[in-house]
Design brief:
Helices cover about 55% and strands about 15% of the residues. The chain has about 475 residues and is an alpha+beta fold. The protein is flat.
Length: about 475
């Protein structure tokens, strides 16, 4: 405990004067948003090239709303859920690698490993090796002879056309049997010399005759051949091996010890790794902002999904009530066609299906057409944007010509006759005619109402003097 306290004190003394260099630009329920945090998020989210004081003030209101949602999620305990903690840790740890891992050390090991592999593999390259083996049950010549006889029997089955993999699963007595004898890609230097001589004499897809090596009977097959390739081509595989070998842990210890030396910590190696992870947000402000971005972003997504998006998708009756009370808001700029385009092989087909559709609601038109076709597809259809049946002028060349009398079109191959069933609307008939617009506006309504409650619930303040110190050079 004493050593940890000493480390904490050293970190505090190494940090700059927050009050002077990083003033608070807003507070949300007791949480201070400092200039460095605000500038980080503003720079990431601002798309304007000409940044003004007004731009900063407008973004401050948006960021205040964001932090209010974060606070609401924390109050709900969302930051304590296993799902959130797992996802956040995964995101945070991935971003932390640049800070807590000595990547130069890993890269030097990776390059050295590749160069050693090149030297070992040589010009012969690698083979994709499959093995069937029979290990004698006893250390006697008689037992070895029985193993060899078994391999001769298996060899006969191979020549008769049976699969190498299936025979390996049935007869092989080593750990590779469950994988159909697959040993993976190997170099000559990885095999005993007598085995390597046989393996590397085989062509791709060829298997050997039974042979004995080190008291075990074998049949081997070369499933493929390849050269080692460039370092870049093998880098991902090499790094996977480095991770399994423990090299990443050593790279973390090296980086943590560098921090310990520069900041005067008394802990070293694994203790330094654990301590570095616990204070990384404080000693590396850039990473602190990255971690906060993931933390807050995940929380806002979760709570927004519950408060807004699920309300839109799971409560259609409330959205319809919103539409009915705001009907005047949802208007067409110009008349639209509501209906369906029918592409037929001839006019007679259209004349037969038209009265059938006109007698039924549009929601069952597709079923009517499928029943009419009776297995012989004679009609193709277009239903308008978002499957609402609404066609706006300029959206479809067929509707433009047939309904609105403008433009022209090329007939569809195989379906030369085209016509429409439906009518022209000056304004929407129902919510279905403007479903996308209503969903968007209802979502905005829910968010605005929610933000009103949050602003009323939580104390908050934007400090205008501190906000003026935010850099406009973005």
């Amino acid at each position: 405990m004493k050593r940890i306290l000493i480390c904490i004190i050293s970190v505090l003394f190494c940090m700059p004067s927050m009050a002077q260099d990083d003033p608070v630009v807003m507070t949300v329920n007791g949480y201070d948003v400092r200039k460095s945090e605000f500038e980080y998020f503003f720079e990431k989210n601002n798309i304007e090239t000409n940044v003004t004081s007004k731009t900063i003030r407008q973004y401050a209101e948006l960021y205040l709303n964001f932090k209010l949602k974060v606070q609401a999620a924390i109050d709900e305990g969302m930051d304590k859920s296993e799902t959130f903690l797992s996802e956040y840790k995964m995101c945070r740890d991935a971003q932390a690698e640049d800070y807590v891992i000595d990547m130069d050390f890993l890269e030097s090991i990776a390059i050295n490993s590749y160069e050693q592999s090149v030297a070992q593999i040589g010009e012969l390259g690698l083979v994709d090796l499959y093995v069937i083996s029979s290990i004698p049950t006893e250390n006697t010549q008689e037992s070895l002879d029985k193993s060899f006889e078994l391999m001769q029997s298996v060899y006969g089955k191979l020549k008769a056309g049976e699969s190498f993999q299936s025979l390996a699963r049935r007869y092989s007595s080593d750990d590779l049997a469950a994988k159909g004898g697959e040993a993976g890609w190997v170099s000559r230097s990885q095999l005993p010399e007598d085995v390597a001589a046989i393996v590397f004499s085989l062509k791709e897809g060829q298997y050997s005759e039974p042979f004995i090596s080190d008291g075990i009977a074998f049949i081997v097959m070369v499933n493929g051949r390849r050269e080692l390739g460039t370092y870049e081509e093998n880098r991902d595989d090499i790094y996977s091996w480095l991770y399994e070998s423990g090299a990443f842990d050593e790279a973390k210890r090296r980086r943590a010890n560098e921090y310990a030396d520069s900041l005067g910590w008394t802990v070293r190696d694994d203790e330094a790794v654990a301590y570095l992870d616990s204070v990384l947000d404080e000693i590396e402000p850039d990473f602190g902002n990255i971690a906060r971005e993931y933390h807050d972003g995940l929380l806002v997504f979760d709570i927004s999904n519950r408060e807004i998006w699920e309300m839109v998708s799971n409560h259609p009756e409330e959205m319809e009530a919103y539409f009915e009370s705001h009907r005047k808001q949802f208007k067409f700029d110009e008349p639209c066609f509501k209906g369906m385009l029918l592409f037929c092989r001839n006019e007679e087909t259209f004349n037969q299906i038209k009265p059938v559709l006109e007698r039924n609601d549009m929601s069952v038109w597709i079923d009517s057409i499928l029943a009419f076709n009776s297995g012989d597809i004679r009609i193709r259809v277009m239903r308008g944007s978002l499957e609402t049946g609404i066609f706006k002028k300029g959206q479809n060349e067929y509707v433009d010509k047939i309904v609105f009398g403008v433009g022209d079109y090329e007939p569809m191959t195989g379906y030369p006759y085209v016509n429409v069933v439906g009518r022209v609307l000056k304004q929407p008939d129902s919510i279905n005619d403007v479903a996308g617009e209503v969903a968007e506006e209802y979502q905005n309504y829910l968010e605005n109402e929610w933000l009103k409650k949050l602003r009323s619930k939580y104390k908050h303040k934007i400090y205008k003097k501190a906000l003026k110190k935010v850099s406009l050079d973005k």
